[in-house]
Give the backbone structure.
Amino acid sequence: MPRRRRWAVLSAVVAATGVVCALPSTSAAQSPLPEISRTASAAPLTYTTDIRVDGGNANIAAAIKSYSILAEQQPQGAADLASLVARAQADQNRLLAVLYDEARYGGTIRITVADMPLDAVDLTSAVRQEGEALKVVIGITPGDEFRFGDVAITSSTNAEGAPAIDPGEYGLVKGEPARSSIIVAALDKIVARWRAAGYPFASIGEKEISADHGRKLVDVRVAINTGAPAVYGWVSVVGPKRLSNRVVAEQSALQPGKRYHPGDLEKTRERLRKLESIESVRIIEGKAVDENGGIPITLEVKERKHRYIGATAFVTTLDGAKIETHWGHRNLFGEGESLRIEGAVSRLGSAPPENAVASRRRWQPLLAAAAVVVVAVGLGSLWRPSGAPETVLTPEIAIEEILAEVDAVLADDSLPGFESIDP
């Protein structure tokens, strides 16, 4: 007698670089806030934002409006006066970054609330709104445009195959506008070039970026710490419980002794993610090269649930019900093999032809139930919880005898509900 098994139902849900420029301080006489007050239960404090750019530079004005928190959140208003002032203070740093990106390193920003500088607003004053929105003014004096002056890039090695250190290849061209975004992108590109050349520990060692307000020039001096060149060393795999570590290492295609390249690691990540049994991959690079010049690589793998099952049902008035079910295994033999079995039962409860035998209606539910039982037994024989000991079941009847019985039943036209159909 076969032993009973208990089944559990499983559910699956799914550096930025800045140039220090001092803003001139604005002195203002302390004066009480105008009589503007509101009750705590009233609507949010409304205000208007007026952006004024000296010189009428449309590009700068558009950039200021795009990045200003005050302008962006104006339709929602502010909870109270303190929130509005805090929002304005946060805007100052954001707008200063906008000026730097426009190569304006000598500009000034002035924000007033009700014609008062931010440091002069008395947050303890009563606030009452009297029909008109609070007036907020953002005043911008861009200043002169700065350009690149002296630019120098040096490295700690001059080995064969090392990347070029010509500043022009990184966008640092003397005489061109010295936008902060160009400087940041250049630093990132320098490091990426050296890593692609086989120097995994390349970094920016020293950098000196200064804005000369007298010459209206930005001087850039960068020193690169290249570190030691490296090849791939030992590749280790951690994380998988049933998936073979050997399969993961082979699928990564990382060859020890091959020159390091960050593009290889990205291809490895994509290749491993294509295995159905793997949910996520994390690649950890070693912190130093070994005595053979190799950098160890660790592949941290997280497996997905190996087995999955699903079912769908459709019902129509003409064709009756249709049930589709599928079962799958993402790691059948422990080396990433996948298997998916699908089954379907259709026309359950559909209207029979007029000349059909009336007794066929009695057989259809029985046949449908039998089909469901067969599918369930088949899935049960394939399902084995992880860690359970393997059990070998010896069938009492040979499979050939079972198939012979099925053929005999299907060939018997006398059974109600069965019809002989010639091919």
